[in-house]
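anyone else get weird line breaks when pasting these?? whatever heres mine. first is seq + tokens for prot A
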Amino acid sequence: MSSSETEPEPSAGPADDLPVTVAPQLRALRRRASLTLEAAARSAGLSPAHLSRLETGQRQPSLPMLLALARIYGTTVSDLLGETVTDREAVVRAADMEPTRAGGWTYWQAGAPGRGMQSLRVRIPHGSQGDIVRVHPGEEWLYVLTGRLRLRLGDTAHILAPGDSAHFDSLTPHRLAAADKDGVEVLFVHTLLQSPTATLCLGPITGDTP
């Protein structure tokens, strides 16, 4: 569920779907990583203009974009969302899981923030981002909760029903989509590896911070 350079720019979403801190946080973390707007945008597969609109709150980042930017900036999605880590609780209560909508998907943080491994519960509507090919370092594990998931790994297509799961290397080109009109809900675990192998799919990151 992280994006690669093939991801198209999505249309703008409601400004209140994400915390108001997310736009300035995106810019602050990019500068902390000593990346120019152009270098960060190229690594995330975006245009500099589109990344600029994300940083000024004019556009809404999708979940794959957040995952990609977190990897590029050497941080986590929780950090991008401006969530503060107080005491690294091992248990996350259902009542504390606030839904976030981005790029047509709805997701809930299913794990504690500030970790190297991201745990999410994701709702994917039918027809949303199904044409996006994703390639990135790390591993992914998916478990279908409700509905049916259409998963394409390389040249092979799979239909996963409730109770089915998949565990794969994220450098394998993959696509995720709901197989039925009612959508699909999955449990998703992703390792945000801070690895030099990121250059295999992102390209080198160079440049000075403006």
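and prot B, same format (seq, then tokens)
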Amino acid sequence: MEHRKIMQVRRLACQDRELVIEGPIPADILSGYVLHPDLDAFRRPIEQHKALVEIAELTEGRIIAVRDAETIVGYVTFHYPDELERWSEGGMDDLIELGAIEVANSYRGLGLGKRLIETAFAEEQLENAIVYTTEYYWHWDLENTGLNVWDYRAMMERLMKSVGMIWFATDDPEICSHPANCLMVRIGREVPLSSVEQFDRVRFRQRFMY
């Protein structure tokens, strides 16, 4: 599979500053930036920065980030499914996970999450891939946003729908463990039917469900 990586650079005026939304960022450039200290939802910022660089080094990996000068204040990751997760079971080279998406607290409310994922899909870079994301309520920042589970779920759905990702059914136990959890998917226009069928087999282990 061809992993199209066409560098995008977009600028956003923010009060007296200019934010830069860019990506996919090459690992050597990404390593020269620092993460905002508030980007600690998954691990300490210094460790998360290392993880982002490692993703950027992958053939399929891509990091889209928004930065204030040399400080990354938000990012989204794309990579193959973890080999320990069910989504890797199909051995698909055109199935890509939209993984972590995080924006520093003081930069929220600017629509940066939407801008990040729109940048990732620009110039048809992912039209030859099935892109999926798994939304689990226990990963959501309910405390800082002040949202309840259902409002947060609605917010995430709106965000993913902005790039054409839609809700897909699955019998995955983790997703089925709570009604707020969900699987959202975008099937690119160039994806062959054989890949769609293989993805269906991964989504459902119990064949009677589809």
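btw re prot B: The chain has a mean pLDDT of 94. The first helix runs from residue 27 to 30.
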